[in-house]
Amino acid sequence: MILAEASLFHTLVVPLAVFGMFAALAWCFLDWVASRKPRALERLDELKHPRTRPSLDTLSVKKTDAVTKVLEKATPALAKALEPKSEAEINRLKSRLSAAGFRSDKAGSMFLGLKFLGLMAGLVFGSGTSVPLWGASQRTLITTVAFAGGLFYLPDLVLWFLVRGRQKSIFLGLPDALDLLVVCVEAGLGLDQAMRKVAEEMRGTYRVVADEFGLANFQLQMGRPRAEVLHELGTRTGVSDLRALAAVLIQAEKFGSSIALALRTQSDAMRTRRRQIAEEKAAKTAVKLIFPLVLFIFPGIFVVLVGPAAITMVREMFPMMAGGK
Q1: CA atoms within 13 A on the CB side of 317
Q2: Nearest to 268 by CA among 241, 297, 295
Q3: By CB neighbour count within 10 A (0-12 exposed, 13-18 middle, 19+ buried), where does 280 fall?
């Protein structure tokens, strides 16, 4: 009787839970699509009201939707169980989020809240899918723990990919930014004006580099010391080339040497390092091609070359084997 009631419960509750989950996802997607205004209407509004058109100097403030507001309100309560206990852990979390481009005060609580939500969703989804299949068994426990652990560490994986993508964008765009910075400084502009010019000119090509230089320029305008701003510029991104550039600028300012000469020397060193990295990747290509050659190409070549000979040998040996029998 108990087993029958349990099976009836699972047959009724699990489909309803799955249906509710997909309905909620569909509702969120439709609400997001409906809240967006077509690009044609946005351009017409910009033409009607040119003063409200966002410029390069102002940061465009985007309206957050209902889901984001709910997350901002709910995640601080959910993140209490996962809050770091020491100052070093807090600084490490802030540096990871800053390297990914999240510098808001609520970024840490939202990140930890998403991890907690992933853990709960993994427990519910894992148990809801495995219990009707295998019942209360060790396999069910392992599947539930695997789902919960995977969704718990999913925000960390996404954050790692965001950090890698941002660092790669900075790595690719920094040589052009440095060349433009050298041109601006040698043309007579100061370092602050040169950084502002780089942020304006590179916003359309390398947005990440432009944002970093724009933030550093904004901090300089707010009155922070230049050495402190440059040091933070080099450390918050996690890119070694940007740290080296910040160290060179701090040293040039400290000893009173020419900033243009220091920038040109750093540009030459960075260009040499780029060439060495390209040569290293080219040298590794032959070694990396061994694995696809052995796994995919060599078996096909082996079949084409040895196949006819093997067929001929079988045809020649088969009558002898038949006659021996």
Answers
A1: 6
A2: 241
A3: exposed
Q: How confident is the model at residue 28 (pLDDT cuts 50, 70, 90)?
A: low
Tokens 């439709």 map to which residue?
A: 30
What letter would DSSP give residue 61?
A: P
Q: C-alpha 258: how far from its chain's center?
A: 37
pLDDT at 321 over 70: no
Residues 6 or more apart from 110 whose CB is under 8 A from it?
Answer: 71, 72, 75, 79
Q: Is the pLDDT of residue 9 over 80?
A: no
Q: Which tokens go with 279?
A: 């040569």
Token pair in block for residue 162: 């965001």
Query: What single DSSP character describes residue 55?
Result: -
The predicted model gives 242-260 an average pLDDT of 83
Residues 218 and 233 sit within 8 Å (Cβ to Cβ): no
Neighbours of 237 (CB within 10 A): 26
Distances (CA, A) of 16 to 9, 12, 74, 126, 259: 11, 7, 25, 16, 67
Residues 6+ apart with CB under 8 A from 220: 192, 195, 226, 229
188: left (phi over 0), alpha (psi -120 to 50) or beta: left
Helices 2-35/107-134 angle, 10° precision: 140
- The pTM of the full predicted model, rounded to 2 decimals, is 0.65
User: What is the rounded distance in angstroms from the CA atom of residue 55 to the CA atom of residue 310?
Assistant: 73
The structure tokens listed for 318 are 């088969």
**With 80 as the cut, is the pLDDT of residue 133 above it?**
no
Tokens of 174: 């920094």
